[in-house]
Write a structure and sequence with these properties.
Shape: elongated
Helix content: under 10%
Number of strands: 48
Largest sheet: 18 strands, mixed
Structural class: mainly beta
Number of domains: 3
Strand content: over 45%
Radius of gyration: 30 Å
Length: 535
């Protein structure tokens, strides 16, 4: 059994040479000591990774070491581990000075940029992976910002404020680069089930860590593969934090990928009866996305999990093993729900505030957002396409608008049933469409066997008016033992209900059934077919 955790970052220098090669001192003020390769046996500071790390002496000086590179680094993310034993400047010292810790990049014309990544107010010692987004402008530069399309040097610097009596007091290790979206990829073999602890153990380079009872990640997390292989992940009760480091917008995320050959299962929390419990809390110190649209995902089960400060989310179409129950979405952007089932979930202060956005994007008349709550959202439901949409048991409170119809001339009808309470809507299309909210009566038809268990054999259900035999409702391929007839008029009408074509059961007709004036349930018990044979 094995959990395989693969880093998608590219190593520029693993710092594993007995004699450092390709590194040059970058002195801004003062003169630093000579770079040396050290081991745990030769220094008090053990290497960050592998056998060696690189070290030098820096007193009341400002500078570091840079590695010779060649290429376009204008959109790269740099990761490098470092530690210093003496006092350093704060993160944002002002006056054009470098922070206590900064990542350095230079170009072929001798221009230098400095990306401030930590200081004495944010870094308290020990090995730390420092991260810089080179796609943004440097915090300070040598007079002219470098053209990183022609990058020649990458490194780490310190703005030290005190002397050291040690031979070496500044250390760095494992210089890596990444493109936006590169992170840790998780797969499994032999029916292993991965957890967050496996990611920490399998990483070994502090891209994801466990500290003080919390998991912190500096990279996106990718579960599964689009080509081949298995992936099974399950976790309960933990807190996962996307760390506040210098990465570009859109970099952080959780992605679940599928393929037709392997088994892909992703689960957060557990299910108890019909409810979701014991989920995770996932926090974005920088916003993160969740993407799980691949139709080859075999199971996507999110239970009792809280998502905070996410940028956007996208879910797959409905299928066996896909459901989101009792999850809470706080302070995030738009969630594309597709037809994936969402039940007993809550959206609070959600919606990125755009002119055409909402807490959830409803695009299908077959969506399954039911018995959910939408609280204090600028726009709760965002809708774009003409059609008649169910709204079953959903509650809306304190939203600026419960529904935003941004479709051009879109004629949207929302059938609010099971005490759904849509109150407000607005139209922002060009030209604007129309939004109509109706409150039909819901008749739930439950089909059970002699023991009261739901019939799972395929059946066909019709509701027919007695007076003229007009068919009022027709549902084919009912396999869950229940179907719902919603009607806006006709209460008091006398009907008969047919249940037919049920393998192993006799057909059943309920005569003289009067359609109710309020939501109701009728239970129809089928008798086993004594002459049915299934050789």
């Amino acid at each position: 059994m094995a959990v395989v955790v693969t880093s998608q970052l590219t190593t520029i220098d693993a710092c594993e040479d007995a004699t450092p090669s390709g590194w040059t001192a970058h002195n801004i003020s003062g003169a630093m000591g000579v770079l040396a390769s050290i081991t745990a046996s030769s220094e008090e500071q053990a290497p960050f990774a592998g056998t060696y790390s690189y070290a030098y002496d820096i007193d009341i000086e400002n500078g570091g070491y840079v590695k010779a590179v060649s290429g376009d680094y204008s959109s790269k993310i740099i990761y490098i581990a470092g530690v210093i034993w003496t006092g350093i400047e704060v993160l944002a010292p002002g006056g054009g000075s470098q922070s206590g810790v900064y990542i350095i990049a230079g170009d072929s014309s001798g221009n230098w940029g400095y990306w401030h990544v930590a200081g004495s107010d944010t870094y308290k010692g020990g090995w730390r992976v420092f991260v810089a987004d080179l796609s943004r402008a440097p915090d300070t530069n040598s007079g002219t910002a470098p053209n990183l399309a022609n990058c020649t040097s990458i490194g780490l610097g310190w703005n030290s404020l005190s002397k050291s009596k040690a031979t070496h007091n500044a250390f760095f290790d494992l210089l890596r680069e990444a493109d936006s979206g590169d992170g840790l990829k998780v797969t499994t073999t032999s029916s292993s089930v991965a957890t967050l602890a496996d990611l920490v153990a399998g990483d070994g380079t502090e891209l994801i860590t466990y500290e003080r009872g919390l998991y912190f990640t500096k990279v996106p997390l990718i579960f599964g593969d689009t080509t081949s292989g298995d992936m099974e992940f399950a976790e309960t009760g933990e807190i996962l934090v996307f760390e506040d480091v210098d990465v570009p917008a859109g970099h952080y995320g959780i992605t679940v990928e599928g393929n037709s050959a392997g088994t892909i299962e992703f689960q957060l929390g557990t299910k108890s009866g019909t409810r979701g419990i014991s989920g995770l809390t996932i926090l974005g110190n920088k916003p993160y996305h969740l993407t799980a649209t691949d139709t080859d995902i075999d199971a996507l089960k999110l239970y009792g999990t809280t998502f905070k400060n996410y940028s956007d989310m996208a879910f797959p179409v409905t299928a066996t093993g896909r459901e989101v129950i009792d999850c809470t979405f706080v302070g995030g952007g738009e969630v594309t729900v597709s037809t994936c089932p969402f039940t007993y979930c809550s959206w609070i202060d959600a919606d990125d505030g755009g002119t055409a956005s909402g807490a959830v994007l409803i695009t299908s008349t077959s969506h399954q957002v039911q018995y959910c709550s939408f609280i204090n959202c600028p726009d709760a439901w965002h809708m774009t396409t003409t059609g008649t949409y169910p709204c079953v048991g959903n509650q809306f409170s304190g939203n600026t608008y419960d529904v935003e119809n941004s479709g051009n001339s879109a004629a949207i009808i929302i059938e609010a049933t099971a005490t759904s309470n849509i109150n407000t809507h607005h139209e922002t299309g060009s030209p604007p469409g129309t939004t109509t909210v109706s409150n039909p009566v819901s008749l739930i038809i439950d089909i059970v066997d002699a023991n009261g268990a739901a019939i799972t054999a395929t059946c066909e259900v019709t509701v027919v008016r007695n007076s003229d035999t007009v068919e009022l409702y027709h549902a084919e391929d009912v396999t869950t033992g229940t179907t719902t007839y919603n009607f806006t008029s006709g209460s008091g009408t006398v009907t008969y209900i047919n249940v037919v074509n049920v393998t192993g059961y006799e057909p059943k007709t309920v005569n003289n059934f009067t359609l109710p004036s309020a939501d109701a349930t009728v239970t129809i018990q089928l008798d086993a077919d004594r002459y049915f044979s299934n050789p």
